[in-house]
Amino acid sequence: MAAREHIERAPSMYLQVAQRMATDIKRGRYQAGDLLPSESEMVKMYGIGKHTARAAVAELRRMGLVESMQGKGSRVLPSGGVLPATRVDRSIQRSTKGSWHLPEMTEAEPPAISRTALDGPPALLLDQQDQDAINVDRLIHDPATGARMAHRVLIPMATAAEVPTLAEQPDAEIIDLYRQLAEAGLSLSFTEHVTARAPYPDERTALGLSDASPLLITYRVTTDADQDRPLLCEELKAPAATCQLTYPVTPTKPAAKRAARRRSESE
Fold it and tell me: pTM score > 0.85 for this model?
């Protein structure tokens, strides 16, 4: 039996065109502020179809080399690119009096409440695979840039049973959910997990995405700090091409090292 030989497959045509144009940008053929050739011009230049030309430009956007302007075409960005226009502040603040504060979100439509069985990353993070939960979906947007984002709150039924007021109005403001948990005697801590993937077709429609640019996805887990027990999960989906996530980072001392140092000193 003949041994299988490895064959290198050429990249897709749109990737070849994007790589060629990226090289041209880096070599100075297209300067910052210049408009790229139109789709029709690219069709003639490279002998490709309009769909391939459109996909190549989308790839250049993902590389951070160009930006598309409605009705004008695609413009080359300065070297190093620019940060996305929409700044999504992910901070959580608590006052000395115990009240919670979050950055404001503008809802594009009323929240939708449903009941669901937990699966995927939220189920893993909540350690509640296939368990029932209350699901609250919101579509939010940034009035300044028009960017649309999908926000979801998942309240496991086990948490709702422990704090019954959560089930009475699950679509309350997030800070109200935090307040109810705290008033139930729970000490809250938060961990945020960030990942990215290509959007599904329904997500592209809901968020008004014109191509398959990746989604930024965050999972914020609210935990009972005393028992290290997950209570809630918030999921945010935002288009990576237009949104940047920002976090305040406060240095802390590793708890394990402090405990080890105290033990050594006592000995």
Answer: no
